[in-house]
Amino acid sequence: MVFTGTLATGWGATAAYAEYRRRRRVRRRERYLEGVRYLLDDKPDRALEVFLGLAASDDETIDTHFALGSLYRRRGEVDRAIRVHQHIVSRAGLDPRHREAALTELARDYFRAGLYDRAEKLFLELADAGQEPAVALAYLVRIHELQHDWAQAAAMHERLRAVGVPDQPGAIAHHWCELAEAAIEQRDLDAARKYLRTARHEQKDSGRASILRGDVARMQGDPDLAVQYYRRVVRRDFHLLPLVLPRLAEAVRQAGTADVFDESLRELLRNGVGNRSEIAYAAIVSGYYDDPVILECVRELLATDSDLRDLSCALLPPGVEPSTEQLRSVAGALRNVVLRHARYRCSVCGIDSSTFLWQCPGCRSWDTQRAVAALEFLPRAARPGAPAD
């Protein structure tokens, strides 16, 4: 009888506990649906209170809270995302995996909010002790780039390399080139040469590093060496011609070898690196077009571009070729047109810029800007296919 009574008591306790858990699940579901209704009714603060209350009492809803925090961040409601992830981090007895995930999300919240010092602190903690340091290190690279702390950005790339992430020598080379440019501005040429050697070690064929090495050579009174660097750049990276043309012209002027400039352009044409129209456009974009070979390229541009050909025919008598002075005037007028429009465009994300930027401000890619492929006479809103406001 005693055994039977004990058994009955045990069954009763089990049944009571099962009923308690069932009611708890029902209440939790009701609260969850209540929070969803608040979200649908565009009452995010009320929804946040409900969901944070659920997180405080139930481990089973933690994935929902991660999703909620991400939703808030994508909607731009970063302050609410921070509250969600801070609440998860502060819970006692939280599974270490969940805590690391919450810290990562919280660091992303801080990054999205522009609180880079807080984001950096958390990402450093995750990079040193987390299970997935590569994610944290990649964010640290972005933070240091945004803060123009190029040495630290390069150091974070080194740590990424150490944890097995594929090398990004181009990005690292640009970091050292940024430091070299700052040193050149301060006339610290020894430091600039040191940084450029490191950049060349990372990326042997860095066009930017070669341009800067040419700049340093000119500043040190060796224009012949500068010419060699500049010519090497345009042979290998023709898209950098708008940057190099004025530098090359100045270097050959200092060296007293004006014929080298024309020979450099003819070499590009002979080797098929660029055609006459492309050279003319690069010269117009750069603002340097007072050269016989370039003016001949401008003449070719007038003959091959349909819009310019019609304009030239309207201004000149039939069969009359424009004179040298007229070509200079046309180049200057086209330069004014170029200055009113975007001159460069990112080949990755398509963002436009009026000045050349080594790093795209949109997608943060390096060395992806190219001169706009053709002259654009219409304002952006008036171009065919332009999106409506």
Short description:
By secondary structure, this protein is an all-alpha fold. The protein has helices spanning 2-40, 44-57, 62-74, 78-89, 96-113, 116-129, 133-146, 150-162, 169-185, 189-202, 207-219, 223-236, 241-255, 258-270, 276-286, 292-304, 306-315, 324-339, and strands at residues 344-346, 352-353, 369-371.
CATH architecture grouping of the domain at 14-113: Alpha Horseshoe
Beta-strand residue percentage: under 5%
CATH class of the domain at 14-113: Mainly Alpha
| Global shape | elongated
Which short descriptors sum up this protein?
389 residues; mainly alpha; Serine Threonine Protein Phosphatase 5, Tetratricopeptide repeat; 18 helices; elongated; disordered C terminus
Question: Would you give an account of this structure?
Answer:
70% of the residues lie in helices and 2% in strands. With 389 residues, the protein is mainly alpha-helical. Strand 1 and strand 2 (352-353) form a beta hairpin. Residues 378-389 have low confidence and may be disordered. The longest helix is centred in the N-terminal third of the chain and has 39 residues, at 2-40. The protein has helices at 2-40, 44-57, 62-74, 78-89, 96-113, 116-129, 133-146, 150-162, 169-185, 189-202, 207-219, 223-236, 241-255, 258-270, 276-286, 292-304, 306-315, 324-339, and strands spanning 344-346, 352-353, 369-371. Helix 5 runs antiparallel to helix 6 and helix 16 (292-304) crosses helix 17. Among the domains are: 14-113, Alpha Horseshoe (Serine Threonine Protein Phosphatase 5, Tetratricopeptide repeat); 280-339, no CATH class; 341-382, no CATH class. Strands 2-1-3 form a 3-stranded antiparallel beta sheet, with no helix packed on it. The protein has 18 helices and 3 strands.
